[in-house]
Amino acid sequence: MILKLDMNSTVPIYVQLRNQIVMGIGHGELKEGERLPTVRQLASDAGVNTMTVNKTYQILKAEGYIQTDRRQGAMVARNITMNKEFREKLESELELLSAEASINGMDKSEFMKMCEIIYSKMNPQPLQA
């Protein structure tokens, strides 16, 4: 997975890293159980401070996207499932995006079609019961 960070962006680097790892999981580039680079390795590869990567991994772990183990390091979590907090976050973000689309003149069918196209590009892992 190739990371593309914009050092001039107003979006913090740790958020950009988090988002790109989540996208990698969503697109199937990172598989369930796959090891992620060590904090030091990812920091070196991305040209950022190790504390930045550490913060990213802490957030991803709290969100349930990765698991960490002192011996194994960080890896993509197994059995990622939707929880109440995620559902609420998703609903809130979709409400904001829907409002922005509407304000900018996009009709519902166009918005839904765009959502369909983007979602179809994902390679989600099957949810475990």
From TrEMBL:
It comes from the Bacteria. InterPro entries: Tscrpt_reg_HTH_GntR (IPR000524), WH-like_DNA-bd_sf (IPR036388), WH_DNA-bd_sf (IPR036390). It holds the Pfam family GntR. Residues 11-79 form the HTH gntR-type domain. Keywords: DNA-binding, Transcription, Transcription regulation. This is GntR family transcriptional regulator. The lineage of its organism: Bacteria, Bacillati, Bacillota, Clostridia, Lachnospirales.
